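From the pipeline queue, job 12 of 40. The input is one protein chain; the requested action is below.

Action: predict structure.
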Amino acid sequence: MPVDVQKMREARAEKQKGADLWTPSVGDTIIYVCPPCREEDPLPFVEVKVHYGINPKGKSMSICLDVSTNTVLANSNLKAALVTKGKEKAIAGGCPVCEDLDKGVIKDDKRAKEMRAQSRYLWNLIAMRFRSSGSVPYQPLPEVDKIVPLMCGYRVWDKIIEQFESMGDLTDFEKAYCLKLNRKGTGMTTEWDVQPDIDSVREPLKLGKSTRAAIRTALAEGGPGDLYTIIAGMIRDRAGVIKIMSDAAMIEEEAAPDAVVDETAGAKSEMPQHADYKKACYGTDCAPADLECQKCEAKVDCAPLCGVEVPPDVAKPKPAGAKPGPKPKPSPTVVAKANGSGKKTESAPEPEAEEAATMATIEAGKCKLGDSYVLEDGTIAEYKGSAKGSHFFQDSEGKRTKLAATAAVGVIEGDDSEAEADEEPEAPAAKSKGLDDLEKALSAAKAKRVPAK
């Protein structure tokens, strides 16, 4: 008797109510990150381990059923959610995917790497404003008080964590900081970035009563923002996972959700979007001394996942008989920098830079988010914020530069950064216990995350 795939879809939809994950549109979306869905939780996200590609002919995803690997399975809130859904025995018996991988049943090395358990992170957000490109103004979104769950991979998670480390508790109802989630491209060309929302950095947001009430209702046990209920809805029992691993008829119905950011359209792995990120070795086998790794465009993102240093660049050999090119023009540097004697020297700017920059300089630590400055090498770059004592600038080609707080940068003529540098929101005199706990929990979460080997 043939399998009724439509019936399976309906049954799955019924079991997974509340797991309608949010998919950001191409462009910039201003988001508010909601607080934890339980009072006792120190973190505003829940980490879950998943397997991709478990069907040999499809793109199926399943939650890892190995409690030692997927520690959220031992969480009392998740267990209660499973009981509510009548799935209290779903996590019994162990994970058949992990067992096959450990026994070497999967002979295809590429598929085996894809099937290894990967971390995904569930957050609750409010999407507040949107613009399709930087050339158009933001428009408020119609359902501004609607809480939506986002499931992301390591890269987006790390960028959000970086903002918490830089600005403190973003979720504070009285003084909230929003983020700008940028999506470029679709499918295999998708790229993601997370930056502070300049407006809320200048003037932190105080959430209204209706928004606060909507958050509390959504995050309540069993609500649409209860992350444990969402995960419980995604869990299949051991028999269901085994059936997907062997039954080609389930391919279409069991495709992994498109709402997981950081994923390619095909492998659904934790990969940014160009050719080198499709390699099976991505995130598992980076070696700084390996020539292939040194040439790989994905090495900057791959190396941290493998727990190694980023491989050095390979020097490009000059063609035989090539004539030396013209000497570069003097750099349009307008930065006053200290020489060995402690005195400051200045190099003359190029003619085309004279009108754009002045001789005024400020310290990187006093720069204003979103404004442009002239770096020591003459590059004009936008100030993107700070993390762990370092300050980051990004030029028009996307290249990032990290500077110390005391490093000098040039002020663009007409830019009011220097005058307003001290007008940024003042930090509280003393951190609250809740903020201390949040920072400790975030640090612990990053420290314990060991990429799959």
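Job complete. Residues 5-265 form a domain with the Replication Fork Single-Stranded DNA Binding Protein fold (CATH 3.90.198.10).
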